[in-house]
Write a structure and sequence with these properties.
Thiol Ester Dehydrase, Chain A; globular; MCH/BMMD; 7 strands; alpha+beta; 3 helices
Length: 172
């Protein structure tokens, strides 16, 4: 097993079953993040935005919307797992294992569980990872298995997209 440090994107050829990626960024969740996401997704469960109501629930305080938790952990994993992906193929076995609260900082890590060449797209392969999110105390807050279609290094699709400046190159 190899533990990889921070980097920006990997191609299909870079993934090896058993390798662990400790994604380089952490993200602290604010009250505004939780309220905004809850309103944006029209989630009317008051445990996410009504402190008085949430105080009477078993957890006893506002709990972060689980959709936001999933989205943040997914985002944290992109830099290593799907920066060079053409598409997500699916998530399975999503488990929410510990509550997340405003002020918690989330981190993520992924282990590669499977790789295979795409049968229909010769320029890509399929990478499957188990990803978990951890809070600042090291508690696992969620996990899932995700499969993504990742470009091979010589795929043309993710190259040459930066526009040429009409007034020429930058100069000193």
């Amino acid at each position: 097993m190899t533990v990889h440090g921070p980097g920006l994107g990997r191609y299909y050829e870079d993934f090896t079953v058993g390798d662990v990626y400790r994604h380089p960024l952490g993200r602290t969740i604010s009250e505004a993040d939780n309220t905004w996401f809850t309103l944006l997704t029209v989630n009317t469960n008051q445990n996410h935005f009504n402190a008085h109501f949430a105080a009477g629930a078993p957890v006893g305080r506002i709990i972060v919307n689980s959709g936001l938790t999933v989205a943040i952990v997914l985002g944290l994993s992109v830099i290593d797992v799907s920066q060079n992906a053409s598409m997500n193929l699916g998530w399975e076995e999503i488990r929410l294992t510990h509550p997340v609260f405003v002020g918690d900082t989330l981190y993520a890590e992924s282990i590669v569980t499977e790789t295979r060449e795409s049968r229909s797209r010769p320029y890509a392969g399929i990478v499957t990872c188990r990803t978990r999110g951890l809070n600042q105390d090291g508690d696992e807050v969620l996990s899932w298995r995700r499969s993504v279609m990742v470009y091979k290094r010589d795929a043309p699709h993710d190259k040459g997209f930066f526009p040429q400046a009409r007034n020429g190159p930058m100069t000193l």
